[in-house]
Amino acid sequence: MTRYVLGVNIGFHDSSAALLGDGALRWLVEQERVSRRKHALAQPPVEAVRACLDAEGIGPESLEAIAVGWDFSGTPLAGNRRFTDEGMRTLLFGTDAPETMPPIRWIPHHLAHAASTCYVNGEPEAAVLVMDGAGETQSTSVGVARDGEIKLLREWPVSQSLGFFYTAASKWAGFGDWGTGKLMGLAAYGRPQGGMPVRRTGEGYEISVDGAPLSIEGPSGRRAAMGPLMAYFPGFEAAVRPSFCGHFPYQERQGEEPIAYADFAASAQEALEEAVLGLVADLREQHDVPALAVAGGVAMNCTMIGRLVRESPFERVYVPPVPTDAGVSLGAALVVAREAGRFAPQPLDHAYWSTPIGADEAAAAASAEGLVVRRLDGDELARVTARSLADGKIVAWARGRGEVGQRALGTRSILADPRNRRNLERLNLIKGREMWRPVAPSVLGERIDDLMATPVGEPARFMLAAGTVRGELRRSVPAVTHVDGSARPQYVDRATNPGYWSMIEEFRHVAGVPLVVNTSLNLAGEPIVHSAADAVSTFVRGSDLDLLVLDDLVVARSETELPEP
User: Fold this and answer.
1) How far apart are CA 18 and CA 29, in angstroms?
2) CA 119 to chain centre
3) Which residues of 221-243 are buried (b: 16+ CB within 10 A; e: fewer)?
4) Using CA atoms, how far apart are residues 30 and 255, in angstroms rounded to an integer?
5) Confidence of residue 219 (pLDDT cuts 50, 70, 90)
6) Please, are residues 234 and 222 in contact by the beta-carbon 8 Å criterion?
7) What is the DSSP string of 84-97?
8) Is 263 helix (H, G, I), strand (E, B) or coil?
9) Residue 10 burial by Cβ neighbours in a 10 Å radius (0-12, 13-18, 19+)
């Protein structure tokens, strides 16, 4: 009989559920995808849990244990009613709660992050680097993993949070709490000027204010019960904001065009990169291992990860497809499965772990909106899509099991021709994004060196590393080349996504370049689509989307818009 462990992130933000069977990952679902509320702020993973169990065809009674990617013992949240057995019953299962709850294990947050990368990278030993906003009381942890045992040997307190630093800089530049990706994109337009409160040291980095390491008081009262982000961040932000005043335009952005903050963004980006390079240099001195495993929300900074691939002293850099808090559901479950003797570490070489779109669901969703469809076999579908892209069409693409993580990787994507710079503007208009923000290429894996002049390594499987586009190709693919000559490519593997690979290979034959533009299938303020109904709704509302590929259907608004096979 299969032994199941359910892992969860419980919902300050990016809540999720991961289901292991006999120690191997079966399903991972992010709550935002099914609830349709971006980042699932303050939302427990009830629907994500249900989606995992339903996909496996089991109920809560089949679970051997539940692993939570947090451990609040010794923190102000320890006595919160939500985290008692009774509270967790409702938090995780809602009205479907079982009479008898499986045993609950509380796994320290950074250990869960570490497991989410150490237990899936295929290495018997690796150095470990976890960086985020805040765990229970820490923000950065380093250590080593050997033969399944993870030892986190040093940590930095929340007052030294690189995640909080970059978020505070994002807010100063007018992008808000969730605008760190925008800040990273803007940095390419500027030149770093120094003067940030983060500096590289011989043992990693330090965040200092007025010449002294930053320290902030621990939370108390109502704020202490609101989770680490709300508890610690306001004090941290207040402490570092005065240092931002030394950067042009000297005040927080309010409504003006963001380009004036390009040098500020570049300065914040450089400070982050240098801090992380300091951390890995010290790690390599301490641990004679060839690989570096990275996790935590800071690992979403693909410019920084690109520098790690190029400049770190490690031979290999691995970042999982879900390095954010959504990934601690997987990490926590893996820790508990290992302790129970059902440890089956599997290298995660793809991100397709969410639930699928099937043929019946696709047909019903398209029919409900009165759309016209044509069913095609795999080869025809690849040819029709490639030809449509080459003809200038914008194509929404939703097939198979959804990808996990914040990057669309060819199962819930919007696609376009990279040869036409106008497509960047068209995509940003469809998605309600600023015109200066870049989009990324999906590249045939065996031809990625044809595009990139600098290595992007394994993180490119999950579109998590930026590098430099070859000079001679920048004019050929201007839609995916950023202002500094960089791109954030996705390495498309024929074995793990054969349908997507075949379509790009067809496009290569038609257009002469081995890549397409790939951005996530969603509109402004919405999560990446999850179901066939989500995809159809996005297509209908995205008026400049020309076609939708839904499972094995080509979907259009009218017969005249439907391409011939």
Assistant:
1) 7
2) 18
3) eeebbebbbbbbbebbbebbbeb
4) 33
5) low
6) no
7) SHHHHHHHHHGGG-
8) helix
9) buried
Domain limits, the chain: 4-110+327-339, 159-319, 356-561
Burial 118-132 (b: 16+ CB within 10 A, else e): bbbbebebbbbbbbb
Q: Is the peptide bond before 459 cis (omega within 30 degrees of 0)?
A: no
Contact between 486 and 468 under an 8 Å Cβ cutoff? The reply is: yes
Q: Widest CA span of the chain, in angstroms? A: 68
Around Cβ 320, how many Cβ atoms within 10 Å?
A: 29
CATH code at 159-319 = 3.30.420.40
- The CATH H-level superfamily of 356-561 is Carbamoyltransferase, C-terminal domain (3.90.870.20)
Determine whether 13 is an active site residue: yes
**Amino acid making up residue 149:** E
Q: Which residue has the higher pLDDT, 97 or 58?
A: 58
Side chain identity, residue 386: A
**264 close to 248: Cβ distance less than 8 angstroms:** yes
Cβ(317)–Cβ(351) under 8 Å? no
Query: What is the gyration radius of the CA atoms in the chain, in angstroms?
Result: 23
* C-beta separation of 311 from 285 below 8 A: no
Structural fold of domain 4-110+327-339 = Nucleotidyltransferase; domain 5 (3.30.420)
Residues ≥6 apart with Cβ < 8 Å to 211: none
User: How long is the chain?
Assistant: 565
- The 3-class secondary structure across 448-462, one letter per residue, is HHHHECCCCCHHHHH
Quick: pLDDT tens for 69-83: 999 888 778 878 888
Least confident span in 42-56, 188-202, 205-219, 465-479: 205-219
DSSP SS3 for 536: helix
551, 524, 67, 90: which is closest to 338 by C-alpha? 67
Average the pLDDT over 520-540 and give the result.
Answer: 97
- pLDDT for 218 equals 65
The tokens 């947050």 sit on which residue? 109
pLDDT attached to residue 86: 87
Active-site hit among 13, 109, 113, 287: 13
The single-letter code of the amino acid at 278 is: G
543: Cα separation from own chain's centroid: 27
Is 0.90 topped by the overall pTM?
A: yes
**Residue written as tokens 């980095």?**
205
Residue 314 in tokens: 């490690």
Burial of 339 (0-12, 13-18, 19+ CB in 10 A): middle
DSSP codes joined into one string, 270-293? HHHHHHHHHHHHHHHHH---SEEE
In the structure encoding, which two tokens stand for residue 414, read together? 């919007």
105: enclosing H helix or E strand: strand 104-106
